[in-house]
Design brief:
427 residues, 5-stranded antiparallel beta sheet, disordered C terminus
Length: 427
């Protein structure tokens, strides 16, 4: 299927501040969170195959940043925000217990700028990252069932945006930031090799606004999105073990915030943004999995059925058509010129091997036309284009239909009710 269009999901009563955030804890659920203009947490949920109304979290929380979201399993999600005291605060939801209260997990020495970011690469680990007031990356980790102290990444990195986080597997996570040179920079961690980077992965033509966002829908793909300085959505993709060039989404979308990204499965991802109308807008991408072997299907409008085998590569599809006569229909003779009266024969064109429209000169049988002079004056022409028989009686025959039928006046089909299909080679 590829990309959908943009869909308006509205906003909470009273509006919201900044951009949206999203999380899908499993393939059937998607939640959107925003910081309302009342500084409360608001949420809109997708489940049971539909969107449900916006709702307010009436728990006394007062947000000083956009929320950051994560999940440690299909029945868990948590929210991190900057509080009015300059610390990071967390609350979480589980299927068994519902929502917890808010917990203060502090801040790095010297404080931090903007809001937090979070990632859980597996069910046992959660990391929270911030941009310290010293411009460095700071981290607090949850593992072995407890929170561990804040730590500074002393790698020389100087951040010009909040970090954005992703994971391509249970033993991998990576971080993308805006650098002081206005490019996107990345570093990554693996269980086998520890931290690597930073690496400069550039920027779209014309630059971008704010910080990057990232999503890995499976272990082989990573996408980075930004809001370009032209307010369009731009994307850079990692797949087949390499980075590919920046590309613009030329779909008319005009962004008023950094994009928020999520995935509901290995062949799905979606993007949420604030629109210029101050609503949340969404678009999504779905990869159609290539079927194994050949796929056969009947086409009820035709007297022949098609067998198609195709390979999908990006958005290009190659189709092979095999035409088989319907055993239940005995068509009249189909010659390389056109429809002739008579019974079935071994003429090769009858099975669909002849080109359409017909190109050889011939005359159809009297059964083609009605009127006082049933014999048509012409049937085939030598010039390119559709061949249209003309009845000598003055009743024009319809353009040739493929495969032909034989009953009634001028093939038994009222004028202007059927359009001839494309030649077999162009189907």
């Amino acid at each position: 299927m590829g990309w959908s269009g943009w869909f308006n999901l509205g906003g909470p009563a009273g509006g919201f501040n900044g951009g949206p955030a999203t999380i899908s804890r499993n393939k059937d659920v998607c939640n959107i969170y925003v910081r309302g203009n009342d500084n409360a947490l608001w949420q809109r949920a997708w489940f049971s195959n539909s969107w449900h109304p916006w709702g307010r979290h009436n728990d006394g929380g007062v947000l000083a940043s956009e929320p950051a979201l994560g999940s440690m399993g299909p029945d868990h999600e948590h929210v991190f925000v900057r509080g009015t005291d300059g610390n990071v605060w967390q609350k979480y939801w589980t299927q068994a217990g519902g929502w917890s209260g808010w917990f203060n997990i502090g801040a790095p020495a010297g404080g931090f700028s903007g809001g937090p970011a979070t990632i859980s690469r597996n069910k046992d680990v959660c990391n929270v990252y911030v941009r310290g007031n010293d411009g460095a990356l700071w981290q607090r980790a949850y593992f072995a069932n407890s929170w561990h102290p804040w730590g500074r990444h002393n790698d020389g990195g100087v951040l010009a945006s909040e970090p954005t986080l992703g994971s391509m597997g249970p033993d991998h996570e990576h971080i993308f930031v805006r650098g002081t040179d206005r490019n996107v920079w990345q570093k990554y961690w693996t269980a086998a090799g520890g931290w690597k980077g930073w690496f400069n992965i550039g920027a779209p033509a014309g630059g971008f606004n704010g910080g990057p966002a990232t999503i890995s829908r499976n272990r082989d793909v990573c996408n980075v999105y930004v809001r370009g300085n032209d307010n369009a959505l731009w994307q850079r993709a990692y797949y087949a073990n390499s980075w590919h060039p920046w590309g613009r989404h030329n779909d008319g979308g005009v962004l008023a915030s950094k994009p928020a990204l999520g995935s509901m499965g290995a062949n799905h991802e979606h993007v949420f943004v604030r629109g210029t109308d101050s609503n949340v807008w969404q678009k999504y991408w779905v990869h159609e999995v290539e079927p194994a072997g050949e796929v056969s299907f009947g086409v009820s409008e035709c007297v022949y059925s098609w067998t198609a085998a195709y390979h999908q590569s990006g958005t290009r599809v190659t189709v092979r058509i095999q035409l088989n006569p319907d055993a239940g229909i005995a068509p009249p003779l189909w010659t390389p010129c056109g429809l002739r009266g008579g019974t079935a024969s071994s003429t090769p064109g009858r099975t669909g091997s002849a080109a359409w429209p017909p190109t050889a000169a011939a005359s159809p049988s009297p059964s083609m036309c009605s009127g006082s002079a049933p014999e048509p004056t012409t049937w085939c022409a030598s010039s390119p284009g559709p061949r249209v028989p003309t009845c000598a009686c003055g009743t024009p025959a319809i353009p040739a239909m493929w495969p032909p039928t034989s009953s009634g006046t001028c093939w038994g089909i009222p004028m202007n009710t059927r359009t001839p299909p494309a030649p077999p080679g162009a189907r």
